[in-house]
């Protein structure tokens, strides 16, 4: 499974590296989202600073939707999905590889978004350990749920609109926990931010396990 995961992740990352869609489209889109949030709260700078963690993770969620849709739009073109299904690769390996590729893209995106938070919202990043740990867990959870539901919606004619409807409620706990962890790391909350990592780890484990167990059936259905 792990060998197949490396093959799939490498393939997806090479495709993105050559097309530069994430760099040329998704990154500017996410920064524009942050800019629009800034305009919405422009008259209340203290509130904008307080809301920065939540706005950051909403931007990650929106960008994650684009990354997942991009991944499966490539697979649906020219029968690539059928070729992948008939390749002999383990379905669990395909799932893990796609999750890894989406997660790597999102983690790189989050570096730009963190810079945008600092520049646009005048936030000061602190608590590097908590920020990094929550970012890795949250990003993995977003990628795992996105890939699983992306495969589920790929065979429908309304997949572009169906995927956000499916993912938004599923990822709400991840966005909430990640936001609270970042609020604690940045000093906006008196609670212990590390306890939110347990919730993040639990949901991420559920999404990963569900995807590993069901991805073969999802591929056959699509």
Provide structural commentary.
By secondary structure, the chain is mainly alpha-helical. The protein has helices at residues 2-19, 21-40, 45-76, 80-85, 91-121, 128-154, 159-185, 195-221. The protein has one domain (2-221). The mean pLDDT is 82.
Task: Give short descriptive properties of this protein.
8 helices; globular; 222 residues
* Low-pLDDT residue spans: none
Instruction: Please outline the major beta sheet.
Output: none
Number of domains: 1
Q: Tell me how many strands there are.
A: 0
Quickly count the helices. Answer: 8
Rg from C-alpha positions? 18 Å
- Helical content band: over 70%
Which whole number gives the mean pLDDT?
82
Task: Report the portion of residues in β strands.
Answer: under 5%
Distance between the termini: 21 Å
Principal-axes geometry comes out as: globular
What is the H-and-E element order? HHHHHHHH
Query: Based on helices, strands and strand pairing, what is the structural class?
Result: mainly alpha
């Amino acid at each position: 499974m792990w060998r197949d995961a490396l093959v799939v992740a490498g393939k997806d990352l090479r495709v993105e590296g050559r097309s530069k869609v994430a760099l040329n489209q998704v990154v500017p889109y996410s920064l524009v989202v942050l800019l629009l949030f800034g305009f919405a709260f422009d008259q209340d700078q203290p509130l904008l600073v307080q809301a920065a963690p939540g706005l950051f993770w909403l931007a990650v969620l929106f960008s994650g939707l684009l990354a997942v849709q991009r991944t499966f739009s490539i697979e649906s073109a020219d029968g690539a999905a059928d070729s992948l299904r008939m390749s002999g690769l383990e379905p669990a390996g395909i799932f893990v590889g796609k999750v890894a590729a989406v997660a790597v893209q999102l983690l790189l995106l989050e570096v730009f978004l963190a810079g945008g938070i600092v520049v646009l919202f005048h936030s000061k990043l602190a608590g590097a350990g908590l920020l990094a740990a929550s970012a890795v867990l949250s990003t993995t959870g977003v990628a795992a749920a996105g890939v699983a539901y992306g495969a589920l919606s790929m065979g429908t004619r309304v997949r572009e609109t169906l995927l956000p409807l499916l993912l938004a409620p599923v990822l709400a706990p991840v966005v909430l926990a990640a936001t609270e962890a970042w609020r604690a790391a940045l000093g906006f909350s008196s609670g212990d931010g590390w306890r939110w990592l347990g919730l993040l780890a639990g949901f991420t484990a559920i999404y990963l396990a569900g995807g590993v167990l069901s991805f073969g059936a999802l591929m056959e259905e699509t």
